[in-house]
Amino acid sequence: MAQVKVNKTSPSGGWSDLWKKEDYWAVWLGLGVVLIAILLWSFGSNIMKTIAVSIPSWSEFGEPTAFLGQNIGNIILLYLCFLAIFSLAVKVLGYDVKQFAIGFTVLYVLSVIVTIFGSWTLMKKWNLEAPLLALAVGLILGNFLTIPKWLDAALKTEFFVKTGIVLMGATLPFTLIMQSGPVAFLQATIIAVTTFLTIYWAGTRLFGLDKRFSTCLAAGGSICGVSASIAIGGAVKAEKQHVSVAISLVVVWATIMIFSLPILIKALGIPDGPAGAWIGTSEFADAAGIAAAAAIGEQAIKTFTLMKVVGRDMFVGIWAFIMALISVTKWEKRDDGTKPNAGEIWSRFPKFVLGFFLASIIVTLLISGLDASAAKTVDAGIIKPIKELRSWAFIFTFLSIGLTTRFRDLTSVGWKPFAAFTTGVLINVPLGYILSVIIMGGYWALVK
Questions:
Q1: Which residues pair with 300 in a beta bridge?
Q2: Which residue of 98, 103, 202, 251 is surrounded by the most CB atoms within 10 Å?
Q3: What is the pLDDT of residues 267-278, one digit of tens each?
């Protein structure tokens, strides 16, 4: 299954966390790109448009060849920019930069190839645009070939998606977040609480699983997938194997949802806005949800982000603190009398969510001080290039998911954890449909 390095959650390291934690680096890189884009725009430079390569749709094989011939320099420049910023973070975080650089080069070439074929009108007809195609290619390669260590070193799934989400913040007006945030949070609360309790109850009562194991499964299925499983697994001192199994099940069901939700949405004729919100309530991982929403459209990406990132991901820190408190006071017997403190919320809180908000606020404040004509130049010189860079970051993410997913590892999961998690899925998906499409469908359809 997904080969994710799992660490026990440790107390905050103070100021050193600002450069030693992946979450913070996603914020620094995302905000750094946004600020550089604004600076270049203020000087009248078009370099962002040059770097942010967008491969157009095509139907004849000669079209992408001609495009590559005309834009090969820009594609190489984009590669060098991504390599430089990611390598900086990788170096400070303590990974092998040389191995990352070699692996990222291969990942980038694969991303270009996937994006070219994902822009083919035939692929779009079959809903296999770049995000889903990247996942499919990654799954095929990852399960039929042996991934070398130097390539594995570049498959930073969580890092790529967190950076992409921060960049996404710059493309969503903060006024929209403020308007939709409370609705998203209310809906997310209903979904998260219901799904968490369902999986926990099924795990402990129906299938006799350990409380900590059931907590990891419930967190992964109700909040934000892999990150929640790791954070809350650490908060309750779950076994490493339990966290790994929870991560595996998150990836399995997230992958299933990537393909099944867009098919259901189009078969039922659900509008883009409610469709994105439904994906936001029913997907278990940010990267997988983005892939499914991208198969629907830009409005679906917006409502998905409001529902998943603004709504559900916000629960990680709060839920980790609550479960740590329960673990210490109810499940554990300690002699030293130590208890979790309020700082645990900040320690577990996904920092990239703050980066998402900051990026949105920065661009919104910039636009608010301009007239309509100048605002259009911001859209062309800042927002659109950032959207393209965001899309590339997500392609890296989807390829990484596929390349690190091993179907053969499913046999080690066992049927009871799978059954407990699936019980949550059977509640989560219909409830998400009822809330997003039937009850609040009119609201989500108006989000632009």
A1: none
A2: 251
A3: 999 999 999 999
The tokens describing 298, both together, are 């830009």
Percent with pLDDT over 90 in the chain: 41
Total domain count, the chain: 1
Asked if 134 contacts 398 with a C-beta cutoff of 8 angstroms, the reply is yes
Who contacts 145 (Cβ-Cβ below 8 Å, separation ≥6)? Answer: none
User: Each residue of 7-21: pLDDT tens digit?
Assistant: 443 445 567 778 888
pTM attached to this predicted model: 0.77
The CA-to-CA distance between both ends of the chain, in Å, stands at: 37
Q: Which of 395, 393, 392 has the alpha carbon at shortest distance from 403? A: 395
Q: 446 phi and psi, to 5 degrees? A: -85, -10
Give the C-alpha separation, 91 to 436, whole Å: 42
Give residue 364's Cα distance to chain centre: 23
Helices (H), 295-440: 298-305, 315-326, 343-348, 351-368, 372-378, 384-403, 415-433
Helices 130-144 + 384-403 axis angle, to 10: 20
Strand partners, 58: 120
Residues of the domain holding 313:
17-445
For residue 175, being part of any structural domain is answered with yes
Helix (H, G, I), strand (E, B) or coil at 145: coil
The enclosing H or E element of 50 equals helix 47-51
Domain-embedded: residue 384: yes
β-strand partners of 120: 58
**CA 178, chain centre distance (Å):** 21
